[in-house]
């Protein structure tokens, strides 16, 4: 495949590993960008260092860029890091691309469905006005607005993934924490608010979406979602069935976030129209895969 060089930032992260695998399967030449020399990738640069980013972009001259690197854990303690990495790091990357590789074919910038906040409409389409409720979501929305100022100069697509999970995701996140406790046959698990509804999509579907979006016309925003929401009790029930284990759920006030998102389910119409061949996975299939992975 000619002109198939893809630069992936955050390549060693949870999502990045699956995106890189999916790109290779599709025949792309994948180049991962790490944050430091300890990343074991061929190239590394701090997103906050424009000079080093320019050197890397100049050396690689990518045909495509998938920008995944971010502070993604909503509970991250240092609020300044959200903006430093998610907003200004992205600004530096786009400027480096513009200065060193303006002929790039497409750039995918990963935002988040968290920008919608607690929408009054469900499912949530791309036309719903964002109303972020925390610093993570606010940094992502600011990043979106900043990215749009480059639309006339660079081919950019903004994606808003709804919740997704899979094998090898950190147990800092909800679903891996649940799987880990059931797999270990723990007596109880401490969780926050159980009265929430979320999508829990499969990272393999999300990874394939990033690959397919490379060939979509730029200048748009796309929800990455299934439109299927689950209450937390549904997840606990499926985990119990798969593990054949019952667990006591302890609701801990310390784990209830301020401004908790009560329900976040997306409208997949745009994604389905643009990406008709995406694989689909039920939550049962995803959890089953995660339990199988926990055995290894």
TrEMBL record:
Into which family does the record put it?
Belongs to the NAD(P)-dependent epimerase/dehydratase family.
Q: Which domain of life is it from?
A: Bacteria
Q: What name has this protein been given in UniProt? A: GDP-mannose 4,6-dehydratase
Checking Gene3D superfamilies in the record gives:
NAD(P)-binding Rossmann-like Domain (3.40.50.720), UDP-galactose 4-epimerase, domain 1 (3.90.25.10)
The taxonomy runs:
Bacteria, Pseudomonadati, Pseudomonadota, Betaproteobacteria, Neisseriales
Entry-linked InterPro entries: Epimerase_deHydtase, NAD(P)-bd_dom_sf
Q: Which PANTHER family match?
A: DTDP-D-GLUCOSE 4,6-DEHYDRATASE-RELATED (PTHR43000)
Pathway(s) served: Bacterial outer membrane biogenesis; LPS O-antigen biosynthesis
Domain NAD-dependent epimerase/dehydratase residue range list: 6-224
